[in-house]
Each structure stands twice: as C-alpha cells, then as structure tokens.
Amino acid sequence: MKNLFLYTVLLISGLFFVTSCEKEEIGGTATESMAGEWYVTGVAVDADGNIVYSDDDLFGLGHFHLDTYNTSANNTTEMWIDDNENFWDFKAKISVDLNTMTFQASEAQNEYYDMQVTVSDGKIILGAATTPSGMPADSIVFLVNFSDDTYPEDFGFDSYRIAGFRYTGLTGDE
Fold it and tell me: What PROSITE patterns does the record point to (predicted)?
C-alpha cells in the first residue's frame, strides 16, 4: 500500500513538473509591426516638401524620441502617436493601414492639452534607414500640423516633417 501511494505521488508530481515546464506563447499587439520607439528630427517644409527651416532653426531640439503604440482597443485600425512632450506636446490616436504601413489623422484630439493634431503622409518603411552606427533600421516619416500653431503662417511654411529611425538603444546611434 505504501508503494502504491508513493508511486501515485511520484506520478502526480511528475505530471505537474512536466506541465509546469511548458512555456506559453506570449502574443503581440495588433499594431506591433508599426509600434515602437523612434529617434526623429523635425523640419519645417513648404507645400512641395522643400525644407524651409531645418531642425536647428526650429526649436534647437536636435533628435528626440517619439513613440507609436497600440490603443487599449488593440485593433488593427488605430494606434497612438506620442512625442512624450518632446516636440509640441502631442499624443493622438491615428488611423493605420497595416498592409501598406501607412498612417494619418485629421484633426485628432490631443491628449496632453486641448488642441487638434493632423498627421498626413505617414509611413513606416522596414529596413529603409541607416543608423549613425551604420546598422539598418526601420524608417518613419510623416507631416504634422497643430491647430494652435501660428508658426507656419508667421514664418511661411506648410507643415512639420518628422522623420527618423526605430530606436536601437545603442550608444552609437544617439
């Protein structure tokens, strides 16, 4: 009887051990192919896309971090774009097309303060950028306008073009 009990305990313990070693596959988000942290710069461009003011002329920001990430709805048609209060203090939901890796928003409500954000011609191109360290990375580029911004009218440009690469975390790419 002791042996039967011992074998039963060993069998049950063995089953727990085997099942506890199985790793569950962690799923991604609906927009994970377009989500990321980006290292970008901003320039002022005219309606034809010609640079009117370079980054140094604008606000002296240099490179800054920008994030794109899924919404709580976790669907394939929208995501957040967030400058983390580094450029114009904007965070807005944008429409995305995962097949073409494009995005846009028309007068989306800013979450940091009351104003609207318009994003146009947004696209992510996989492997199209070269980081300062010479490594390939994904590229992001888009035009953005803000409802409370008088600079375009005051200084004669149309939009801000934000462009850069997916952040690598390597010090050579900063």
Answer: PROKAR_LIPOPROTEIN
| Angle at the Cα of 114 from the Cα atoms of 123 and 158, rounded to 5 degrees | 45
Give the Cα separation of 41 and 131 in Å (integer). 13
Could you read off the pLDDT of 51-99 as tens digits, one per residue? Answer: 888 766 677 778 899 999 999 999 999 999 999 999 999 999 999 999 9
DSSP notation for 96-108:
EETTTTEEEEEEE
Q: Which domains does the chain have, with CATH numbers?
A: 32-173 (2.40.128.220)
Contact residues for 105 (Cβ-Cβ < 8 A; gap 6+)? 81, 92, 93, 94, 95, 117, 118, 119
What the block records as the tokens of 79 is 């995501």
Rounded to the nearest angstrom, the gap between the alpha carbon of residue 124 and the centroid of all alpha carbons in its chain is 10
Taking only the tens place, the pLDDT of each residue in 123-170 is 999 999 999 999 999 999 999 999 999 999 998 999 999 999 998 888
Distance of alpha carbon 103 from alpha carbon 145, whole angstroms:
14
The model carries a pTM of 0.82
Residue pair 102/120 in contact by the 8 Å Cβ criterion: no
Quote the CA–CA distance of 125 and 130 in Å, as a whole number: 12
